[in-house]
Amino acid sequence: MLIENILGFELNAPAMQLDWHIRLSCSHGIRNLKMGDATLNLHYKASKEIGGAAKVSIETDKDITVCLLINGKTEHLSIKAECLIASAMMVSRCEIAY
Fold first, then answer.
1. 43 and 22 in contact (C-beta within 8 Å)?
2. pTM of the predicted model as reported, rounded to 2 decimal places
3. Which of 8, 17, 55, 85 could form a disulfide with 65 if both were Cys (CB 3.0 to 4.6 A apart)?
4. Confidence class of residue 87 from pLDDT cuts 50, 70 and 90?
5. Domain ranges of the chain
6. Beta-strand (E) ranges in the chain?
């Protein structure tokens, strides 16, 4: 219930889709969240300044689709895993400022 109701994550593992409804105004997130065979690190960093830009960070080791809902806006993202090191560790990192 904490993941869905407080943090706002709705997972659809068969479709490899995450819906993230950002409701909290403070910084929050979760590490090592499993969605099917994907592992996700999700973080929302609130701005320290009034009216400043907040940041959303999404890391995944598999291709996923994200529907991000924040401040009345909806954004659909297709995030592809990328090879970052020679050991074939697949990780994609996406950062968005709001």
1. no
2. 0.79
3. 17
4. very low
5. 2-97
6. 9-12, 17-21, 28-35, 38-45, 55-60, 64-70, 73-79, 82-83, 90-97
